[in-house]
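Duplicate of earlier report; FAD-binding molybdopterin dehydrogenase input re-posted below.
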Amino acid sequence: MDLNTITEVRDARRAGPWRPGDAWLGGGTYLFSEPQPHLRRLVDLSRMGWQPLTLLPDGALEIAATCTIAELSRHGRKTAAPAAGLVEQCCRAFLASFKIWHTATVGGNLCNALPAGPMISLTAALDADCLLRAQDGALRRVAAADFVTGAGRTVLAEGELLRSVTVPARALASRTAFRQASIYGLGRSAALVIGALDPVDGSLAVTVTAATVRPVRLWFPLPPDAAGLRRALAAETCEADWFDDIHGLPEWRRHMAFRYAEEVRRELTEAPAQGRKGGSR
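Output:
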């Protein structure tokens, strides 16, 4: 849609002060989806020339904020990393059109901080970290699991930019399990749970998103039993953490999160040879 309050679009390659009413423009699929009456200027990142995906010397994967979902999906399909299947599963969780896949960006999905954002799910589950750049050029890193603090809220300061997200090589080598629930056949995620089993020390991470207003990542040095997992998830969440909108009531989301957490625990720890690669709805 047209944004009739926007008076200027500035190329992000040109230096200039950040002003009230400014917003970063990546793919723009969210910005142009509804009115933005508080915005006056867009700072366009599309010509920054950032490499979408970079394999670092230590085997980690750096994903530029401007990397599109289509680019990430192609990488996931062609790589042999054990966690590559999870990349495609999370890309498919968008349930978006061809146009959206080729326009929406990984960074935009994180910065929008919608509970159902599957790039939030992917990066939090794989223990990624976010590189943030302030207006004065100062850099800082934040764990992806801590980047989103609530529905529509992140740790970004005024004018701060999400530059990239880096997934460590060890996480890419993890065995993963994926579960997704929606009240509609092709609806927005209402609960998305991912398990990741570390290939080195056998530790287990279980990450809950979509059902909660922020990512909830539980890490266990040794995989827990069913009761231990349930206690840990109950201790890490409170009533206000469970999201409530037309895509699912908090009580149902909580039920599905606990159910799927136990399913991924069993898949990764009790019967690894027969674990399913696909997800559930």
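Residues 8-44 form one domain.

Merging into the original ticket.
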